[in-house]
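User: Last request for today: this protein with phenylalanine, please.
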Amino acid sequence: MLNKIKEHILLVENFEAKSLELVEKFRIDYLGKKGVLNDFFAAFKEVPNTEKKEFGQFVNELKNKAQEKVNQLKENLEQSEENAGSGLDLTMSGESMRLGSRHPLSIVKNEIVEIFARLGFTISEGPEIEDDWHNFSALNLPEEHPARDMQDTFFIQTNPDVLLRTHTSSVQVRYMEKNPAPIRTLSPGRVFRNEAISARAHCIFHQIEGLYIDENVSFADLKQTLLHFAQEFFGKETEIRLRPSYFPFTEPSAEVDISCNICKSKGCNICKYTGWVEILGCGMVDPNVLENCGIDSKKYSGFAFGMGVERITMLKYQIKDLRLFFENDIRFLEQFTKA
Ligand code: PHE
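Assistant: Here's the final one, the structure of the complex with phenylalanine:
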């Protein structure tokens, strides 16, 4: 009988339980009315007197141990349940993070910047709120010049000297004022024009303008640079064609078309069945502009060009409505994954 009790003491000491239900079962098994302990107590009568003392000691030890075990397990389990209730389960696997994607305009801007960076162009930036000098006058557009109407300007105060820049040529004026020739710089940025919003136009859009000034820069340099850009960006087989045009700040001026990369010049609705699509404006910097910005026009000449990032992006990805760039519909934006 004593051995039986000792066995139970060992069992009780080693007992572990993972739930409160199992602890309760253990309690009933040992301490309950029909439990092991009551059986031993009931057997007490039959134990010979000489052994009663020792027997009693062991039964008491078993009782105390069982009671202790129940208390201790209960406490532990209740505590870990509380921890779980606080929402901290460090064993749970984490939620995977959703990665965003780059905006198509940024992808294209970065690509264009990279192409010109390889030719040694640096990046220059300037303010979106401009004064008349940097946006117009320095660029050979004095007050009352009719070409000011080409760019429907937003004035933000009654003072006509405070306006939202209509092109990033203003950044080039600032750059020329601060840096001596030779100059090779690219100015990407947001520009503003008071135009009705449609599938092909917006009152906010993005431009990248380039400026190259050195001794003996010729129109041939301009043409070759733009051909290189067109072939790097749209593919080696791309051809360009220059059409005479007018900008107040360049003379001569031209508009540049590329061979339609969508129909391979066979004719489609993107190129309006001409085989060519316009991508940018350019020209040789007017000597007046160089002088306005403190550059000796006898010694230096240069070329400038400007393109709309939306337009280039629409051509690259065959997007038909420019408004999609500004609506930030995730389903649209997620399609352009190149970092
Ligand atoms: N600034 C002109 C525009 O906004 C683009 C341009 C830049 C044209 C440089 C010629 C030379 O339309």
